[in-house]
Every structure is written in C-alpha cells, then in structure tokens.
Amino acid sequence: MQWSDDYNVGCPGIDAQHKELVEKVNELERLLESGEADDESFSDAILFVVEYARTHFRDEEELMQKMQYPEFAAHRKLHDQMVNHLACFLKDMQSGNGGTFSELVSYLYVWIQAHVLVEDRKFGDFYLLSANAGT
Question: In this predicted model, what pLDDT tens digit does every residue of 74-130 receive, in sequence order?
Fold first, then answer.
C-alpha cells in the first residue's frame, strides 16, 4: 500500500500515526513476500501491528472525546470490531482453524483504506471545523 496525502485527515498527530500504521503493515507484506519469515516471526510482527493499532485507537478516541465528537460512540465501536476481528483471526490462524498471513495483510489494507478514507475523514472534517471555529 502506497501512502498518499489522500489519507491525511487534517489532524497532524493522527495523520502521523496512520502513516506509521501503513508502514508497519507494509513491513508485514515484505516479510510475507520475501519468504524469509517463519510463523513465529510473522506472528510477532502481526502482534506488534495489533498493539500499535490499539495504541493509535486509544489516542484517536481520547482526542475525539476531548473535542466532543458527536460520532464518537459509533467510531469507537468500529475500532472495537476491528480489534476483535484481528484477535479472532489470529487465534484461528495460530490454532490451524483457518486464515492465512496473506489474507490477514489484505484485510488490514482494506480496513485501513476504508476506515481512514471514510470514518476518520469524518472526524478530520469535524476536527478542522472545530479548529477553525476556535480561531
């Protein structure tokens, strides 16, 4: 996934975290494509991405609450659903009950694109309107 300024939502801290999250998922894809990663190293890399996403979600949600974003509850629910989906996917993958590393990387790319370009963009618009109203 190539980072594009289209993914910027207008909040510098959130934008920087989004860019780093994309870089982390790209690292997973490189591990997958190189064929050099074993199951353990790839699982470790995935867990790192999941933890980074959790940290990012926490930071984003704290900003939303601070700014009294009216769509906060719905947005938080989407974050929770993604983390739960990843946890279930990883559990199934590790137990041999389905899922592949390739499917997981694809899911992450699709989710990041859809979430950032739609849901986070809504918050970005609210953030920019609120920032401009305060000046």
Answer: 999 999 999 888 888 878 877 878 777 788 888 889 998 999 999 999 999 999 998
59 touches 17 (CB < 8 A): yes
**C-beta separation of 115 from 75 below 8 A:** no
Q: What structural domains and CATH numbers belong to the chain? A: 5-133 (1.20.120.50)
Confirm whether pTM is higher than 0.70: yes
Residue 80 in tokens: 């929770």
Residue 118's contacts (CB-CB under 8 Å, 6 or more residues apart) are none
Q: What is the CA radius of gyration of the chain?
A: 16
Return the residue matching tokens 């305060």.
134
Which residue, among 30, 12, 5, 127, has the nearest Cα to 72 in the 3D structure? 127
Q: Which two tokens stand for residue 66?
A: 């601070």
